[in-house]
UniProtKB/TrEMBL annotation:
Residues 11-345 form the Enoyl reductase (ER) domain. Keywords: Metal-binding, Oxidoreductase, Zinc. SMART domains: PKS_ER. InterPro entries: ADH-like_C, ADH-like_N, ADH_Zn_CS, ER, GroES-like_sf, NAD(P)-bd_dom_sf. GO terms for molecular function: alcohol dehydrogenase (NAD+) activity; zinc ion binding. This is alcohol dehydrogenase. PROSITE patterns: ADH_ZINC. Belongs to the zinc-containing alcohol dehydrogenase family. CDD domains: arabinose_DH_like (cd05284). Its cofactor is Zn(2+). It holds the Pfam family ADH_N. Its EC number is 1.1.1.1.
Amino acid sequence: MKAAVLHSFDEKLEKPEFVRYEDVPDPKIERPNDVVVRIGGAGVCRTDLHIIEGIWRSKVDVKLPYIMGHENAGWVEAVGKGVTSVKVGDPVICHPLVTSGHCLACRRGNDMHATESSFPGINADGGYAEYLLTGERALIRLPKTLAPKDVAPYTDAGLTAYRAAKKASRHLLPGEYAVCIGAGGLGHIGIQVLKALCAAEIIVVDRSPTALQLAKECGAHHVVQADGNELQAVLDLTGGHGAEAVIDFVGEGDSIRIGIAMTRNAGAYYIVGYGGKIDLPTIDMITTEKTIVGNLVGTYPELVELMALADRGLVHLATREYRLRDANQALHDLHHGKIKGRAVLIP
């Protein structure tokens, strides 16, 4: 099969070719619950850029050469002898983790904390290819309204945004405020999820006019240009007290300091993007009673819930399609901020 393969890291993201489009062996069924999926779409994520930079070397045992791509959807191509819930030809979306289902975390539904798992595109070959090896337990059959290429980024960008927005929606009441920092690939989904799940007033902060326009299209009640005065602008909109919930889809640079400052006393700051550090005096945590919440992908049931919202038209993805052979162009466009929403590779 054809695949876009990472052969070397590039810490400064300067090389014209990050991956090499080449022939690699087809994945094969090895275990009873294995499933091979013919890729209909593979999302291009900022995490892929971090993998190219080598940031993930300290977190997982990534051995080169290696196929990225952890946001995948397509059609069932082959199944192991123990597979009963899907059949060849079924359109499916892949939960990003492949788990055994036996550990306590799995049995509690916390797939992303499973002790026995693989994460195609992170610690195993992913979907920047014509075919992907996954497991039956990771698959969700798609309704006829949703095409694989249109939903692939929901498996990480959508699921992560959904998980954070769902947590926030549980305590947001009418008349309260939610701030989304970043309206890109994750943020524009989070805005729609908040709007679908709660009645809070949504404020979106981003430096890009294109992203702010997308935020308006997704239902934001207020948009704020990140030009150095965004903290004061948000405080003015919230009566000087800040928002009950702040979801930081950036997680680096000055977004952390500003995001926590935008959070009202006794409010919650949800960190989704990563790359920066949180450094707070303990006395400030005590006197403000702010809560800081980490968010790691999401559960299988949450992906089912997100597909239900997409099926009803309450959440949609802004996508830009690239051929698999043009993976380098997609990665460079993402790196340079040229993509509105998410990029999707199509074999």
